[in-house]
Amino acid sequence: MLFRSALQRLKRHADALASFRDAIALNPAFTDAWLNLAGLLRELRRFDESIKAFSAALKISPSDAELLQARAEVYADIGETDLAMSDLEHALHLKPGNANSMWARSFIELSTGNFQSGFDLFEYRFRQTKTPAKFFQTRRPLWTPTYKRSRVLIWSEQGLGDEIFFSRWLRFCSNIADSALIAVDGRMIPIYELSFPTLQFIRKDLIPDRSDYDCHLPMGSLPKATSELKIDWRETIQSSYLKIDESDVLDIKAKLNAPANRRIVGLTWKSERPGLGAAKSVSLQEMLPILRVPNCIFVNLQYGDCTEDLARIESEHGITILTVRDVNNKDDLPSHAALLQCCDSLVLTCNATAHLAGAMGVAGRVLAPKGNSQLWYWLYRHNQRPFWYPSLKVFDQDLTLTWEKPIDRLATEMKCADFATLVGPK
Predict the structure, then answer these.
(1) How far is residue 309's CA from residue 269's CA, in Å, rounded to a whole number?
(2) What 8-state DSSP symbol labels residue 133?
(3) Is 19 in contact with 3 (CB distance < 8 Å)?
(4) Quick one: residue 271, left, alpha or beta (phi over 0 = left, psi -120 to 50 = alpha)?
(5) Residue 202: what are its φ and ψ, rounded to 5°?
(6) DSSP readout, 121-155?
(7) How far is the C-alpha of 88 from the C-alpha of 81, rounded, in Å?
(8) Among 214, 318, 184, 329, CA closest to 269
(9) For the purposes of burial, counting CB atoms within 10 Å of the CB of 311, is it exposed (0-12), middle (13-18) or buried (19 or more)?
């Protein structure tokens, strides 16, 4: 199977599929071939076929915990959480305490609103072997409730979007320790300092000598830590929690100089997240129904180099997406955040900008992919609004895995006469 796996790594998917199927034709009881076929089909987002392949493998090896866990993850991809949980419970019965199964279960618990058990199981992110989180190396102990009278280092362990998400629990730092030093993405420090003025922030690539702290805590463990301290955060956690300098907003509004009768709609269309970004991204050509909504000025919020995308949509369709001078959407996040605040509404993909908008309470719409590219914090909702970001509204792909239907629904809503009331609070 090494040759076939090499084809998969080289993205020669058609050849790899044919190779797996040839192996199965020669030996229908070859479980590894079924496993590889099912895994590749999931990667290609052919979920129904992937489930059938995993089920075929399980007929051969019904007590294989790895197969059960893998099928559970595909069930979760398509929203079949009961079937996913059933497979995971069976897998954990066969291999109690398995870190990969516990980690997969945490996602299902969190996506269905079972936060207590979900965040407890979230700690398995450092022990699971699929995509293990990198643990900060220090001789200082990990925080426990016995360190409440200490100096704690809280360190950001994941990407920018996850960091913004978990930063909502920083409001409880005074309950966790006497003093807290927070190591984060340096681009966010001006925003965090305005939002949490009693806390000290440093760049996560410049963590000081261990003499500056007594214990440490990963930022993703803040929910569990607050629960251990019996802090009831559910009543306050949904409120917006990141603040920006209002003078930056006024400065950017002056640069926009938009007519009063036009709606300013901020726009992103790509995610750069490794492994998942492609499925979360939309082309501007696919977004044409949105870009053709009348009486809108579309403003570029996309981080990274998107010059070619903007030039193409203008040359082929005569649509100009405004880029605001002096705003670097990737590296100058205070100005980027101020630009979000200037918009009447936003149309976003599931990227860091969506997290930032939700954390600020800015109204917007989020185009969300089907499958494992849509992470758990977008899935638990009420009336399309994520529990964690109630100012945002999610428009999902269906199982066709195309953007046509969610984009059409979003564009139709934008055309409503009462659009201003639909977008939520400014």
Answers:
(1) 10
(2) P
(3) yes
(4) beta
(5) -135, 160
(6) HHGGGGT-SSSPPPPP--SSPBP-GGGTTSEEEEE
(7) 10
(8) 329
(9) exposed
Placement of tokens 């709606």 in the chain? 263
Determine the Cα–Cα distance for residues 164 and 192; give it in Å rounded to an integer.
9
DSSP 183-247: EE-GGGHHHHHHHSTTSEEEEGGG---GGG-SEEEEGGGHHHHHHHTT---TTTTTS------HH
Helix axes 2-9, 13-26, angle to 10 degrees: 160
Which amino acid belongs to residue 219? M
Strand intervals (E) in 74-172: 151-155
Contact 178, 147 (CB under 8 A): no
Helices (H), 369-416: 404-414
CA of 220: how far to CAs of 19, 104, 153, in Å?
41, 16, 13
Neighbours of 96 (CB within 10 A): 10
Please check whether residue 159 is in contact with residue 271, taking contact to mean a CB–CB distance below 8 angstroms. Answer: no
Mind listing the pLDDT tens digit of every residue in the chain (426 residues)? 444 454 455 467 788 888 889 899 999 999 989 998 999 999 888 999 999 999 999 999 999 999 999 999 999 999 899 999 999 999 999 999 999 999 999 999 999 999 999 999 999 999 999 887 888 989 999 999 999 889 999 999 989 999 999 999 999 999 999 999 999 999 999 999 999 999 999 999 999 877 889 999 999 999 999 999 988 887 777 779 999 999 999 999 988 888 888 899 999 998 877 667 688 899 999 999 999 999 999 999 999 889 999 999 999 999 999 999 889 999 999 999 999 999 999 999 999 999 999 999 999 999 999 877 778 999 999 999 999 999 999 999 988 889 999 999 999 999 884 554 444 444
Query: Is the separation of the CB atoms in 217 and 176 below 8 Å?
Result: yes
Strands (E) located in 221-344: 263-267, 296-300
Which SS3 state, helix, strand or coil, does residue 402 take? coil
Question: Residues 400, 316, 351, CA angle at the centre, nearest 5°?
Answer: 50
Written as one letter, the residue type at 227 is S
b/e burial code for range 31-62 (CB count within 10 A of at least 16 → b): bebbbbbbbbbbbebbbebbbbbbebbbeebe
What does the longest C-alpha to C-alpha distance in the chain come to?
A: 70
Length of the chain: 426
Six-digit token string for 83:
């079937």
- Report the predicted TM-score, pTM, of the whole model to 2 decimal places: 0.91
CA distance 180 to 216: 9
